[in-house]
Specification:
The protein has 76 residues and is of the alpha+beta class.
């Protein structure tokens, strides 16, 4: 699990995860502690996320952002 204080320094790429995953887009990032890994998995037809949405955010902030945007999509 990613340390609470680590933030996204750079988005390395967006990938398509394997079939059966709980989403169709996966963001791979470089964290402020120097590690690289998955930051967020989501359905791109429900939530719009771009590189700028990730920079400077912790894993918890990203989950919160995804939740809010998904909720807003469902309410519209």
């Amino acid at each position: 699990m990613k340390p609470e204080s680590a933030t996204v320094k750079k988005v390395l790429r967006f990938e398509t995860p394997p079939l059966g995953s709980r989403g169709d887009r996966l963001a791979i990032v470089r964290w402020s502690d120097g590690t690289e890994g998955a930051a967020l998995l989501w359905f791109s037809d429900e939530v719009l996320l771009s590189e700028g949405d990730f920079i400077g955010k912790t894993a918890e902030e990203l989950r919160s952002l995804l939740f809010r945007r998904d909720r807003d999509c469902l309410q519209s």
